[in-house]
Amino acid sequence: MSSRHHIDDFMRGRIIGKIEEGRKITDVAREFDIAHRVISRLWKSFKTTGMCSRRHGGGRVRRKQISRKTVARRLKVGGLHARRPVVCVPLTRQQRTARLQLCREYHNWTEQDWACVLFSNESRFSLSSDCRRQLIWRESGTAYRPENIQEKDRYPTCSNMVWAGIVIKGRTRLHVVANGTMRGLRYIDEVLPLVRLFRGAIGDKFVFIDNATCHRAIAVQDCLDGEGIQRLVRPARSPDLNPIENVPDALGRQVSGRNYPPTNKNTLIHALTEEWDKLPQQLLDNVVQKQQITALERLGVTTDKRACLLYPLVKSCMPEDLLRAFQRGLNFYSGDDSKMRLDALLKFLNTEVESEERINLAMTGLNLTDATSCKRESQLKKDKIFTSVSLLTSSVGAEKLCAFCSRQHEPTNCFKAQKVSYRENKKQERDIKLGKVVLIESEIM
């Protein structure tokens, strides 16, 4: 039985030599125990090329080293991109359970409920920031020149600790913790008076979130209980559940981006206080609202549990007249189920969109969207004074005669109409109505 393997060059030379001696291909194949077609193909290749060595076949080269760019290009085609991983603190099973329990406990809260929560935190700011966002323009290979090196202390000495709190549609003033860190007794004397102001303004539903170690002292807890302030206990190692953790970063950018950055402790305090007052309230409100959705995503809560957050967001984007129509409609749901409220709101919006499309389709079919009607609608929007007479005398395709001076212009633009008293205006309106009724009756007869 013939074997299936590649013939080496030495064997090829012997086969070609046998055939050149005048022997037949059949005899050579029987002598070397190789198939007849292989010997015939080898002899034909030798007569064509004059070589008896084996040619390299097609296909990719085995064990070839591919470049890094090739791998990156293939990954990019597959939808994968190089990104920095999200950094988080290591959590134990008990800490993960506490985070999930907190999320499940408060996932039904509405925007009105979260508007009663004061989020607070302390942050430390220094003159030598460790922010790596500041870039310099330099030539290649000049990284270690003195003008391209920025000196920074590993442990900055000139720094200030500040305390602040945010609430939806409000904030506390920036309190500077001078000469030291925050302790329990100092927290009672300096910070709690600011919290009492919000407690008195919001009422019994006021909730305070501040889970630092010094804030959970027995003296602080007794003081909060005496004031009737409810505290929302945040799980350990969960700074992402407090939305104010993102505010110091924005405040630090504003301070470092000033035209004249602070140079000493006093100017640093002044800059922090001034930039804190300049932060837009909408930014703080978005931080609170978006942080709740982000926390739910990190905890793996499904989409149907976010109705309590999506409902107030969608509702706040609706115009006032559309919101009134929704509250007066049949689809309005006033229960406690957030998902049913969101479903009712989305159903109402879908109905409004379909109705608007039908109206536009009907107006297009009746040829009511010409330039004249568009011009008339834009003119009505610009008018500041609307009267019942103008509504009665305005009609598409008719001459616009003023009811007060019989000229061709809108009654709202009539100088004489602006001086007419209320009684005369009502009498003129009544006469126009009677005239229209008489005209209709005459047409029927």
Automatic annotation (TrEMBL):
Q: Which GO terms describe its biological process?
A: DNA integration; DNA transposition
Family matches, as InterPro entries: Homeodomain-like_sf (IPR009057), RNaseH_sf (IPR036397), Tc1-like_DDE_dom (IPR038717), Transposase_5 (IPR052338), Transposase_Tc1-like (IPR002492)
An annotated Gene Ontology molecular function: DNA binding
Q: How is this protein annotated for GO cellular component?
A: nucleus
Domain Tc1-like transposase DDE intervals: 117-261
Where, per UniProt, does this protein localize?
Nucleus
Specify the domain of life of the species encoding this protein: Eukaryota
- Read off the Pfam families from this record: DDE_3, HTH_Tnp_Tc3_2
- What sequence ranges are listed for the domain Transposase Tc1-like? 64-108
Membrane-traversing stretches: none
Q: Which SUPFAM superfamilies match?
A: Homeodomain-like
PANTHER family, sorted: SI:DKEY-77F5.3 (PTHR23022:SF135), TRANSPOSABLE ELEMENT-RELATED (PTHR23022)
Q: What name does the UniProt record give this protein?
A: Transposable element Tcb2 transposase
| Record lineage | Eukaryota, Metazoa, Ecdysozoa, Arthropoda, Chelicerata
